[in-house]
Amino acid sequence: MTTRLPLDEQLDVLRAALSRNDTLLEVLRRTETLGLPGWYVTAGCLFQTVWNVVTGRPPGEGIKDTTSSTSTTATCPGRPRTR
After folding, report:
1. What is the 3 state secondary structure string of 3-24?
2. Which residue stretches belong to region Disordered (predicted)?
3. Residue 75 C-alpha from the chain's centroid
4. How confident is the model at residue 70 (pLDDT cuts 50, 70, 90)?
5. Averaged confidence pLDDT in the chain
């Protein structure tokens, strides 16, 4: 039987894994200084970082780029957000 951690513990484990990727942390720091509304980092580098940590590889291995995006509603008020 598989057991799951409570959500708060899952988030702690995720934060710990992602914080091992120095390049990702630098991208987050730099993007934050741009003052973009509603920005976020897309899933590719996040997924690969976690995969690398879980499989014992260097956290940044195989990651060629990190993409930051902004929310449509944050940049264009009144425009509906598509999902």
Report:
1. CCCCHHHHHHHHHHHHCCCHHH
2. 58-83
3. 20
4. confident
5. 86
Instruction: Report yes or no: 69 and 36 within 8 Å, Cβ to Cβ.
Output: no
Smallest CA-to-CA distance from 59 within 32, 25, 29 is with 25
Q: Are 59 and 21 in contact (CB under 8 A)?
A: yes
At what angle are helices 43-54 and 22-33 packed, to 10 degrees?
A: 150
Q: CA 81: distance to chain centroid?
A: 20
pTM, two decimal places: 0.74
